[in-house]
């Protein structure tokens, strides 16, 4: 997630620098051909170009709205996980019965195991959401240069945040060795962890450490986590419909290709100097349309491992700190994740 108040020039160039180059070359080429060779046959009226630009603006606007909805829904899901995690931990430590047969140490050990497993679930779930899909910009199709660029961006982010790829360490910290080793066995390890939580909570009820009503409330909390997980997986595994994304991109390129063909003749009416003045205006207009396209294109995948993502690592760390303090642990708490270079993950 970008944390600076305004997007700085480095972030803009990082996003659109390559596109700015080909737009500049194309607009300059048309101006040169028109000035030196006076090729009137390649000129088209401005009206159809303007109509295409207007239609493209509506289509890109629709695409960006849908992308923002996906991004904001993803943030609301993780916001719900924050609130439900705090409630769940509070209930685990608040619920108990006056059963003398239940040892204090045994109860405390079971509570600690449940909370630790929930923290492990957070990091395991985050890691699962970061697995790239074929339609994301971080896709491993190395034959496309822009995928290599995004892989480089991902590596830079990881290098800036040492905890970014330390999920295996966290799992061994908060899970028993037996449970941590099961990660390779289950295709959806996060789901397995929640199912184990249900078994442990049911065991607390059977040993009469909590009442039946308490067990039902805790199970409701686990059901909420299942719900949040399913909602996030829906966003991750179902892309924004490609028919909208693809047509918006194709129309955008078509408009930018036609733009100097219609604009150069309009500026030529000002004189020979107007032809050269056309170049920066063509570049600016084309660049604006490319930026609008890229903003929606990157925002539609909020779990892609880039700077446009929901800051899951930061949220996981916030929950981890809160839960450890609810357990009564106030020493050696992990540090909160701070933004670096205007980005937080």
Automatic annotation (TrEMBL):
Subcellular location: Cell membrane
Domain of life of the organism encoding this protein: Bacteria
Membrane topology: Multi-pass membrane protein
Regions crossing the membrane: 12-37, 43-62, 244-261, 273-292
Pfam families documented for this protein: Bestrophin_2 (PF25539)
One GO molecular-function entry: chloride channel activity
Cellular component GO terms held in the UniProt record: plasma membrane
InterPro entries (UniProt xref): YneE/VCCN1/2-like
Keywords assigned by UniProt, alphabetized: Cell membrane, Ion transport, Membrane, Transmembrane, Transmembrane helix, Transport
Family: Belongs to the anion channel-forming bestrophin (TC 1.A.46) family.
Protein's name according to its UniProt entry: Putative membrane protein
Organism (species): Chryseobacterium defluvii
């Amino acid at each position: 997630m970008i944390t600076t108040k305004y997007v700085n020039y480095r972030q803009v160039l990082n996003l659109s620098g390559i596109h700015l180059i080909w737009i500049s070359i194309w607009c300059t080429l048309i101006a040169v051909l028109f000035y030196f060779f006076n090729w009137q046959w390649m000129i088209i009226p401005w009206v159809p170009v303007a109509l295409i630009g207007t239609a493209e603006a509506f289509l890109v606007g629709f695409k960006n709205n849908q992308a923002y909805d996906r991004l904001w829904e993803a943030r609301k899901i993780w916001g719900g996980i924050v609130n439900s995690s705090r409630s769940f931990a509070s209930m685990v430590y608040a619920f108990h019965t006056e059963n003398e047969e239940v040892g204090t140490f045994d109860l405390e050990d079971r509570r600690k195991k449940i909370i630790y497993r929930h923290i492990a679930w957070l990091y395991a779930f985050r890691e699962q959401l970061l697995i790239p899909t074929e339609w994301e910009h971080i896709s491993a199709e190395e034959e496309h240069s822009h995928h290599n660029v995004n892989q480089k961006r991902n590596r830079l982010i990881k290098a800036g945040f040492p905890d970014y790829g330390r999920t295996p360490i966290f799992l061994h910290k908060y899970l028993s060795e037996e449970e941590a080793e099961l990660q390779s066995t289950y295709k959806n390890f996060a789901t397995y962890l929640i199912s184990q939580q249900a078994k442990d909570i049911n065991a607390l009820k059977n040993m009469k450490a909590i009442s039946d009503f308490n067990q039902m409330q805790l199970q409701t909390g686990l059901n909420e986590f299942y719900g949040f997980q399913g909602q996030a997986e829906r966003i991750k595994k179902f892309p924004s419909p490609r028919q909208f994304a693809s047509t918006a991109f194709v129309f955008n390129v078509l408009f930018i290709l036609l733009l100097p063909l219609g604009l150069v003749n309009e500026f030529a009416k000002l004189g020979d100097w107007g032809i050269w003045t056309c170049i920066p205006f063509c570049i600016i207009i084309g660049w604006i349309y490319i930026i609008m396209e890229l903003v929606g294109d990157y925002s539609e995948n909020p779990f892609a491992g880039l700077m446009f993502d929901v800051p899951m690592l930061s949220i996981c760390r916030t929950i981890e700190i809160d839960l450890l303090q609810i357990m009564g642990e106030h020493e050696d708490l992990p540090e909160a994740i701070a933004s670096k270079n205007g980005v937080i993950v």
